Amino acid sequence: MLRYLVFATLAVTGSGILDCLAIPRRGLRSRRGFELAGSLSALMFGICSAMTGSPAVSCLLVLALLLILALSSNAKLGILGEPLVFSDLVVAKSFLKEPKFYLHAISPLARAALLVGLPLMLVTLAVVSWHGATTTRIAGAITALLAFATLRALISDKSLMSRPCLAQDFARHGLLATLVLYWRRWKETPPPEPASQEPPAPSAPTLVILQCESFCDMALGSETQVDLPNLARARARAEASGRLLVSGFGAYTMRTEYGVLSGREETDLGFRAFDPFLTAGSEASHGLGNKLARLYPERLFVHPHDMKFYARDRIMPELGFTRLIGEESFRNAPRFGPYIGDVAFGAFIASLIGPDGHAPLIYGVTMENHGPWSDGRLKEAGGAEAYALHRRNSDTMLGLVMDALDEKGSDAVLVFFGDHRPSIPQHSEAGPDRSTPYVVVPFSRSGVRPAASVTRDVTPAGLHRLILDAISRHRRQTAPRIAPGENRGENDPRCGEAGAS
Q1: Which residues does residue 481 pair with via DSSP β-bridges, in sequence order?
Q2: How far is residue 416's CA from residue 441's CA, in Å, rounded to a whole number?
Q3: Residue ranges of the Sulfatase N-terminal domain (predicted)?
């Protein structure tokens, strides 16, 4: 038993020391942070001991896991400007689906260690568990139960980390404390009140929304200025444009995407904001497709990639889209670099725009500009040079869709925005300004353009409201005028009780 207690103490104290390796940090962690980290470490040690019957191996497993978490958090902070958070662990399965999105963040030495160490660890665990001591298993089960009870009592304190302030909480309380408490607060967050649908109307403009992967208009690498003629053309005729104030950097497409689709501010989402797709089903009425269902019988979501990534195959129908168009529709489409090119994607979007009078809702998410931005991409010297070529294709795509809407002659609204900036070491790194451009461009069959263009900064949720405002403005402009005394008809939704008399 003494041996068991020694290794248990080593696991708990060692975990506290390793937790301090994770940055940001501000001196020693808080007392509550150490209590939470110690309880969680004891819980993990107890579970491992109950499974393996070996306190020494259990101690090594706990310390190895904490070291991996700390190093992973530091790597993520360096690339994306944000330490590890609970939602990163929830969606860890994405690593297995798309390892190329993540492997660039792991050093070659670490990859080799994983490749050799993981099989060795599994074999060792199997052998040790077969010969493990029964007394150690019993002690481990008791330790896990006591640690779980202690951890549950600690996280029941509602005053601790009651609202998300990740950088400050992480620096003060530590990696393990924020992981477990942020997860708990996320679980406790209630869903919002249901949203209402837009009322039916005689007509609605074609609505095309283009979410452009990793698109920004800042100069990178050797660029002194950025030449994006179609973005300039869109801004010149936009009714609204400016900076989109996204919170993510280099990743977290789903945060921007959900804000535009739901109109829910991240301050309102609370702990759900770290990955709002995880709880999208309980907020489905806020989805743009559901809100506009009475105006657009046909609501398309288009993305030239696996729809199972981020669970879009499940989430987008919940948010009101009637049809998903994924990678199977782009099998023969040309790639530009690793992914389907934006020019081909723009041509496909243009083909979905119907003739005058046919008004679908189309939400397209591009893929060409996705990282990683390693040297040699597109045979360029560096990632920034390759990104410049990709971004020009995104601008060409915008021009293609604008030209298609002009040629169709329909009333339409085009929305274009970047979901986040690219993460390119030494050229584009996380900082306080993470904004991307957006434009809201109206198209009118009469050729009339807005009298004035509004330039302002908006959040993704604010862009959602701008979209609804643009649709409402069109409906007011095209609503039929009723002469004084004219009977609206008993089925007219504007009649109320008077119309049925």
Answers
A1: none
A2: 8
A3: 205-429
